[in-house]
Amino acid sequence: MRSRGTFRHGYLTVAVLAVLFTVSSILLSMLPHLLRVRREGRFDTTKLQAEMLARAGVLRAREQLSIDPNYLGEVWRVPIGPKTNDLGAIQIKISSGPLGGQDIDIVARVLPGGTEQTPNAFEHAVQYELKLPFKRPTKETSPSQPET
User: Fold this and answer.
1) What residues contact residue 44 under an 8 Å CB cut-off, 6+ apart?
2) Among 62, 51, 117, 120, which residue's Cα sits nearest to residue 90?
């Protein structure tokens, strides 16, 4: 015949296993939600980075146009942060618009891993078409001096 202490140890083991099973089930059911939240956070961060890169492209285009009236655009690559290999690529294109103005097309992209061929890359691009009232300065001749 067994003592009452042996039965208590058996019940205690079953109770501990039931609690572990319940806690594990709850944690496993939360896992897809946590992964989705993480993915959405990465998407929001990358989207914000791309938008900031596009704004920097607008500022750079305006600055370059003020320096060089024949500036037509460029592709500009910048590192995103000190602890990542991610790069930002900004493509600036300037074309003549109606009424002597200029159209500035800016495409800003975040390149995970620094390349476009990164497997399983998470990427976000922003494209702006700005109709800014820029006018290229023309060479104006100084008024002719009257001959004496």
Assistant:
1) none
2) 51
Dump pLDDT digits (tens) for 5-58.
556 778 888 999 999 999 999 999 999 999 999 888 888 888 888 888 888 888
Question: Which residues fall within 8 angstroms of residue 69, CB to CB, at 6 or more apart?
Answer: 136, 137
Q: 57-70 b/e with 16+ CB inside 10 Å = b?
A: bbebbeebbeeeee
| Cβ contacts of 76 within 8 Å, gap of 6 or more | 57, 60, 89, 90, 91, 92
Q: Give residue-wise pLDDT tens across range 86-106.
A: 888 888 888 876 666 677 888
pTM tops 0.85, yes or no: no
